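Please go through this chain and its backbone structure tokens and walk me through the local backbone shapes. Keep your notes short.
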Amino acid sequence: AQERFWFLHSLDPASPADNVAVALRLDGPLHLGHYQHAWDRIFQRHDVLRSTFPTRDGIASQRVSPAVPVNIQVHDLSDLPQTLAEQTARERAAAVADLPFELERGPVHRLVLYRLPGDAYIALYVFHHIVCDLWSIGVLSHELTTLYTALLQGREPELRPLRFQYADYAVRHREWLTGPALESAIAYWRRQLAGVSFAELPVD
């Protein structure tokens, strides 16, 4: 799956089509130090979020960088009138969500906070689909809530240790897609596409 997204990205590196973006409104005081620490723990926990995808001899590879503090951009809009602040946050978030990623150099994520008047924030998470999907966003949001809440309460978060990383799954998947499994899949599509003209295929 990652190789597929890498291939599509190589066809059009400036396209944001494979960006996964979620914006959440947070109401109430936000402890920025704990918020930062919670994200740092998440990136330490999930190697794939620290990955870049350099090309070697025309073939994609995956490089995992050491864990470092995550860059969270904070934009203070709290001096603006409420309606204007929210509109500005929405417009800026939409623009950030549409920025392309450089898979070879990274990072392949963006974390942004827009501070609104009255102890409210818009939290924006943007990841490239090569490291994250909508199911993953649910997992990350749950872990972020768990970590942040525990840090606020001064206790150690209760997250189960990961049994394996995404790279382990990718290796297993590639090993499975060899021999009979691969031949079976190719044979299926040859039957399905027999006699189909390229002119009949949708261009999107």
In short: The longest strand covers residues 19-27. The mean pLDDT is 92. The chain has six helices and eight strands. The radius of gyration is 20 Å.
